[in-house]
Design a protein that fits this description.
- The chain is α+β, with helices and mostly antiparallel strands.
- The protein folds into two domains: 2-91 and 209-215, Glutaredoxin; 100-205, Glutathione S-transferase Yfyf (Class Pi), Chain A, domain 2 (Up-down Bundle), CATH 1.20.1050.10.
- Helix content is 49%, strand content 9%.
- Helix 1 (23-32) crosses helix 8, helix 4 runs antiparallel to helix 5 and helix 5 crosses helix 7 (193-203).
- The structure holds glutathione (GSH).
Length: 225
């Protein structure tokens, strides 16, 4: 599928699957407004294990971004790469600007801490062999996530509405992607008022809406997507 504003040649190719970790890079591409190709990698059909895809991303995960011959994987790295390549889009404070440290801190924390606990909840089978152990890991992860979302909510209540105060950035997109992944939990991210306000702000953006439409998902879609 080609997403091509005007007649420009596509600059990027994003390998994606529905509702996966590509959501944030995909929405960032749409915020930037540059031409790109979308190449579906259907995990349910094990396309992420095809030799051709493994040659790009040996971890067999989505997303992967190609920029010409360059290959980049890890969703947060792709987001940072795109924000740096398109400073005019204003999706992150540049080096030396106020908020730069906070941007990096939150992007890294979201991907190495919050996203990791979400992985435990969604994919306990990747970590433990028996059902009771997996059940326990899911319960512990959900408790830990609850504390993290509660802390984020307090922060957004004191200094929001965005993670960088009154400045929207790609960190908000990344966080809202992770918030969608809580929709099957007893207490989802939308239960926290300040987080829910941020979710409302980000999901109202044309770029987010276009990403959801292109991926064929909505906020409360089935848990497989
Ligand atoms: N840290 C990676 C995680 C990517 C990831 O786990 N993607 C999932 C979909 S959300 C995936 O590709 N799963 C396929 C599998 O584990 O076989 C990132 O953020 O890019």
């Amino acid at each position: 599928m080609r997403e091509e504003p005007g007649n420009e040649a596509p600059v990027y190719r994003l390998f994606w699957d529905r509702g996966s970790a590509n959501m944030a890079p995909h929405a960032v591409l749409r915020e930037i407004g540059c031409p790109f190709d979308l190449i579906r990698v259907d995990i349910s059909k094990a396309e992420n294990r095809d030799p051709g895809y493994l040659a790009l991303n040996p971890n067999a995960r989505v997303p992967t971004l190609m920029h010409g011959d360059r290959v980049i994987y890890e969703s947060a790295a792709i987001v940072l790469y795109l924000c740096e390549a398109h400073p005019g889009a204003g999706l992150m404070p540049l080096s030396g600007e106020a908020g730069r440290g906070a941007f990096l801190q939150w992007l890294f924390w979201l991907t190495n801490t919050l996203q990791e606990d979400l992985q435990h909840w969604w994919h306990a089978d990747n970590y433990l062999d028996t059902e009771p152990a997996r059940h326990e890991l899911k319960a512990v992860s959900e408790r830990r996530l609850g504390r993290m979302f509660s802390d984020l909510d307090s922060r957004l209540g004191q200094g929001g509405p965005y993670m960088l105060g009154d400045r929207f950035s790609a960190v908000d997109i990344f966080l809202v992607m992770l918030c969608r992944w809580t929709r099957g939990m007893a207490v989802s991210a939308t239960s926290y008022p300040n987080l829910n306000r941020l979710i409302g702000l980000v999901t109202a953006r044309p770029a987010w809406k276009a990403m959801m439409l292109a991926e064929g998902i909505d906020w409360n879609g089935p848990l497989a997507t």
